[in-house]
Amino acid sequence: MHTWRSVLTVATLGALLAGCGGNASTEEPAAAAGPWSFTSGNGQVVTAEKVPSRIIAHAGEAAALMSFGIKPVGIYADEPVKTDLNLKDLDLTGITILGEEWGKIDVEKAASLAPDLIVGDWWPAEKAYSGLEEGVDEKSKKLAELAPIAGVAQGESIADLAEGYEQLAKSLGAKVDDPQIAAHKQRYEKAVEAFKAATAAKPNLTAAGMSPTDEKVYVANPKYAPELLDFQRWGLKVLDPAAPDKDFPYWETLSWENADKYQPDLILWDGRAYKDTLNAEFGKKQPTWFEIKAAKAGAVTAWPAYWLHTYEDFATELEKLTTVINGADENVGN
């Protein structure tokens, strides 16, 4: 699976943290004339004689388009759509599911949908679009032969990612200023301001992104985690690990004997596969977990790691984290 941006095993993916999907209308916008163009995340301009309407999209990117009223004809996901945090609460009626495992896409079924555009995030580190990276089934890569591919680059900000998909949706005919759709962005903007106010009130509060497993503890490197970079930008002191793995700089890997190398005031769990209630269970299996003062104090909350794509989901996660910050103690890690 996609090991470079995940330390999760296939087994743990089934335990994903419940997410909050959007409820925006998924009615297709009125057909628009052409020509059409969009500057994709890799810097290339993708063009078509008419505005694409039969779109196949990767899971998170599909959720982003649907939040603006653009309904794809097909979706390929990295896991079951029932557990995918981007999709689990969306109405997928009428959408063909083309895959529910990373690197496995039913290209024959995709071809039957006669797509005129494929949408996926552009990953600069791998120089590939979502689902078409190195390591996927060669048959799956043939998806790229069915239609032009476009998407927004994963970079230094989820805010930028959401804005990029707003622009893509607008180019596809979405009425992004529709009151129901615009309300999601307005809620997000209010959530950002509340988050900034919470962190300003606690300027010494430190946090660390972590993903503990039975064998190791992984400390997230914000440089490769756009959500954490946003949090830093908005005032939360998320720790930068001192020695990220050379071959895998997204994390610093610690043995359980060294689990207490960092002492943040707040631990941000990898929210894709763990719930805060698992904290105590990890402590039973790995007593050194409680050598981290924040773990012992129960100063633990979920971090929406690597999955956010929409203003609405980002607003929901920011609101949750803001509540935690408001109740946090800046002296836990001392």
Walkthrough of the structure:
Residues 44-332 form the Fe/B12 periplasmic-binding domain. InterPro entries: ABC_transptr_periplasmic_BD (IPR002491), Bact_iron-sidero_bind (IPR051313). This protein has 334 residues and is of the alpha/beta class. The protein folds into two domains: 21-176, 3-Layer(aba) Sandwich (Rossmann fold); 183-326, Rossmann fold (3-Layer(aba) Sandwich), CATH 3.40.50. The chain has ten helices and 15 strands. Strands 10, 11, 12, 13, 14 and 15 form a six-stranded mixed β-sheet that branches. A five-stranded parallel β-sheet has the order 5-4-3-6-9. A two-stranded antiparallel sheet has the order 1-2. Helix 6 (179-201) runs parallel beside helix 10 (311-326). The protein is globular and about 60 Å long.
Set out the fold topology.
Blueprint: H1 10-13, E1 36-39, E2 45-48, E3 55-58, H2 59-67, E4 74-77, E5 96-100, H3 107-112, E6 117-119, E7 122-123, E8 128-129, H4 138-141, E9 149-150, H5 158-171, H6 179-201, E10 206-212, E11 216-220, H7 226-233, E12 237-238, E13 251-255, E14 266-270, H8 278-285, H9 293-297, E15 300-303, H10 311-326
Parallel strand pairs: 3-4, 3-6, 4-5, 6-9, 10-12, 10-14, 14-15
Antiparallel strand pairs: 1-2, 7-8, 10-11, 11-13
Helix pairs in contact: 6-10
CATH superfamily name of the largest domain? Nitrogenase molybdenum iron protein domain
Main structural class: alpha/beta
Distance between the termini: 38 Å
Mean pLDDT: 87
Total number of beta strands: 15
